[in-house]
Amino acid sequence: PLPRLRNEKIIFIAGGVGAAPVYPQVKWLYENDIECDVIIGARNKDLIILEEEMRKIAKNVYITTDDGSYGEKGVVTDVLKRLVNEEGKKYTKCIAIGPVIMMKFVALTTKAMGIPTVVSMNPIMIDGTGMCGGCRVTVDGKTKFVCVDGPEFDGHKVDFDNMMMRMKAFKEREDHDRHVCRIGLSNGAN
């Protein structure tokens, strides 16, 4: 409810293309006069998206790149730690969307800080019904299916290590298929 949201101090953490689903949430808050901060992180400057748009609607936008080519050099959790530990910012909720490894370390950091955290688990969803099991994730010791039970979960309860192990199961095939050109194939062969 809006009255409750107005009392929240929300920080969004967007990794890579995670900025795309963060943007409409930040925009909705802005349109309802609710301020929030945003950290956008990427491997390098060329991979930062929606910065300009985000700056128009968020109270503060912080940029970080792994290689230091833009913004602060480092990872998103470095910025979060600085904001909380050095600048005295107090957040009541964190919403993290991006690579699984980033969300894992955001959740570990926010858990130590006592900041409730929502993560958006967006693995490949094959059938959208939970029947195939491709988007299975363990949350608080229970099996959940991202397509029907999520995609948002309490980041402090997600078994990220299990999720990352499962994501590696088809990595060899994905790497192979990524390099196969399908343009002009009429027989559907790989």
Index terms:
190 residues, 9 strands, two-stranded antiparallel sheet, 7-stranded mixed sheet, globular
Question: What would your notes on this structure say?
Answer:
By secondary structure, this protein is of the alpha/beta class. Helix content is about 35%, strand content about 20%. The protein contains eight helices and nine strands. The protein has helices spanning about 1-5, 20-30, 50-55, 75-85, 100-115, 145-150, 160-165, 170-180; strands spanning about 10-15, 35-40, 60-65, 70-75, 95, 115-120, 135-140, 140-145, 150-155. A seven-stranded mixed β-sheet has the order 4-3-2-1-5-6-9, with helices on both faces. Strands 7-8 form a two-stranded antiparallel sheet. The radius of gyration is 18 Å and the shape is globular. It starts with a helix and ends in a 12-residue tail after the last helix. The mean pLDDT is about 90.
Topology readout:
Elements: H1 2-5, E1 10-15, H2 19-31, E2 36-42, H3 51-55, E3 60-65, E4 72-73, H4 76-86, E5 93-97, H5 100-113, E6 117-120, E7 136-139, E8 142-145, H6 146-149, E9 152-154, H7 160-167, H8 171-178
Parallel strand pairs: 1-2, 1-5, 2-3, 3-4, 5-6
Antiparallel strand pairs: 6-9, 7-8
Helix pairs in contact: 4-5, 5-7
